[in-house]
Inverse folding.
């Protein structure tokens, strides 16, 4: 076992995920070059998987549980949160499985192809970014920021340039295949927080009409 692998294994980070800060803390007495060499050897040996520069995961045989895709998504490109079709699927609102993890950030659009799957990030300007987002336990002891159903819908409306007059509720029922009965169960308590954060007249208008339609 490589020296770095042994040290990280004993530390037992959640699902084997760790970043460069962990490496610095474990080998604070070593130079930056020496730490890079330790990481490179562990990656080349197959004992550590590099998700991106500065973010790593122990290989399967050295971790106690599989990392949850939502946790990986959050660590790959912070600040961000899981949203759009991925969040709607997580909440059981759309029927089909989602084969990539879609997140929203206030940074530029980004995409990562990793051994754990594809992770995409779309830019939605919002202040605060986390309006209508909840810190969720996605597996035992593992947490990630996930959009509420209403925030996930708001992000879709924003990104796809949907407006109420043209598309109405049919966008959600026909295009997204969300059952109308399920739409009526959506918690609207964060409506004001979301529309104020997005500051988009089109999204604000759509969500207010939606709320009236479902009342």
């Amino acid at each position: 076992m490589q020296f770095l692998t042994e040290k990280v294994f004993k530390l037992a980070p959640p699902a084997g995920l760790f970043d460069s800060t962990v490496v610095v803390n474990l080998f604070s007495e070593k130079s930056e070059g020496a730490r890079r060499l330790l990481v490179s050897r562990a990656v080349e040996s197959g004992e550590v998987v590099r998700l991106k520069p500065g973010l790593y995961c122990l290989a399967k045989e050295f971790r106690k549980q599989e990392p949850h895709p939502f946790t990986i998504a959050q660590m790959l490109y912070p600040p961000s949160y899981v949203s759009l079709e991925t969040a709607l699927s997580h909440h059981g609102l759309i029927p089909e499985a989602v084969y990539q993890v879609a997140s929203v950030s206030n940074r530029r659009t980004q995409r990562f192809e990793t051994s754990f799957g594809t992770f995409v990030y779309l830019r939605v300007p919002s202040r605060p970014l986390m309006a209508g987002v909840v810190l969720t336990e996605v597996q035992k002891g593992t947490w990630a920021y996930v959009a509420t159903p209403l925030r996930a819908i708001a992000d879709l409306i924003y990104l796809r340039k949907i407006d109420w007059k043209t598309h109405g509720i049919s966008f959600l029922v026909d295009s997204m295949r969300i059952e109308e009965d399920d739409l009526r169960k959506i918690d609207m308590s964060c409506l004001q927080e979301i529309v104020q954060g997005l500051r988009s007249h089109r999204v604000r208008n759509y969500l207010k009409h939606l709320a009236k339609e479902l009342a």
